[in-house]
Prior knowledge:
alpha/beta, 4-stranded parallel sheet, 12 helices, 40% helix
Amino acid sequence: xxxxxxxxxxxxxxxxxxxxxxxxxxxxxxxxxxxxxxxxxxxxxxxxxxxxxxxxxxxxxxxxxxxxxxxxxxxxxxxxxxxxxxxxxxxxxxxxxxxxxxxxxxxxxxxxxxxxxxxxxxxxxxxxxxxxxxxxxxxxxxxxxxxxxxxxxxxxxxxxxxxxxxxxxxxxxxxxxxxxxxxxxxxxxxxxxxxxxxxxxxxxxxxxxxxxxxxxxxxxxxxxxxxxxxxxxxxxxxxxxxxxxxxxxxxxxxxxxxxxxxxxxxxxxxxxxxxxxxxxxxxxxxxxxxxxxxxxxxxxxxxxxxxxxxxxxxxxxxxxxxxxxxxxxxxxxxxxxxxxxxxxxxxxxxxxxxxxxxxxxxxxxxxxxxxxxxxxxxxxxxxxxxxxxxxxxxxx
Length: 396
C-alpha cells in the first residue's frame, strides 16, 4: 500500500509534470519548437488552410514520434487570416516577434506575403511559402518558396500551347498582384513563342458570371484562367458560351477539386501546371514517389479524403508542398544542430534532397534562388464513367 510519504511524492511528481507542460518544456527539459501557420482557416478558401494544417501536423507528429528534433518536441501554432490582409499581417508580426516560433509557413497568397515579408526579414524569421505564386525570393535571406514558381508554370504552359498549334491567348484574372504579374509575364512569353496576346480581362470579386469576359475572347485559341476560385467561373462561362478553344490554368491551384465542383463538366480537358501531384492520376500507387506515398497515406489515415458532393471528385485532405516546409526544416536543424535563424537560412539554401524522399515527391534544392522546386509538371483533367482523374501531359 502507498503510505503518506509515497502519496506526497506522487503528488509532487504530478505537479512537476504539469508545471513542465505549462512552461512549454519538452523531453530533456528543452523548450518546444513552435512552427507557425498563417492561412485562411475560415471562409471560401478554408480548404487551403485546413489542408496545409493537416499536412504540417502529419509531419510534426512523425518527427515527435521519433523523439523530436535534438530532444525538443515540435508544436504547431495556427492563425486564421480569413482572406483578410490586416489579419494576415497582424499574425505575421506576432510570429515574427515570438522567439519560440522557429519557422513560419505563410501567410498564404502573394499580396499578403508581400505585405508581411519585410517583418520576417527584419526579425530574422525563417519562413516557407507553399501558397505564394509570384514574386522573387532570391533577394530574401529568410524567405523560401515551396510552391511551383509561376515563371516555370507559365513557360511550361506556353511551350505546350505552341506545340499544340495555338496562335492566340487571352487572360481572365483578378486585378490583384498575381493578376498583374501574370499579365506582365504573358506579355513577355507569348510573343517569344509566336502566340498573339489578346489581353487581360480583369475580373472582380463580386462578379456573378464571367460570360462577358469570355465573349470578348471567343476567338482566342486559348483562355488562361485564374488559379483562385474565380477561375472556375471563367470555365463555367466558357462552357455556357460554347467556347471551343483550350482552357489552361495559370498555376497549380486548378488541382483543387473546388474547381471541378464549381465548373462541373466544363473542367473536362482543362490543363494546368503543378509540382508532382500523383493522387488524381490512375498510376498504381506502387509507382508513386515513396515519400509522397508515405505522406498521402498518412493524410488519408488521419484525415480522410475530400469528396465533391456534386461531382464525386476526390483529393487528399492535405497539401504535400506545405509538408515539404517542415521536412526541409527538419533537415536543416539536423544538419546544423541549431535553430539559429542565420544557420537555418544557410542550411535551407544548401539543401539538395531527391524527389524520392520528400513528402511532395519533388526534389528540393533551393540554392540562391530560394526556390524549392525547379521542375513542374503539366496535367489535364478528364472525366469518364469512373469519375474525374488527371493525366500528365508534360512536354518531352
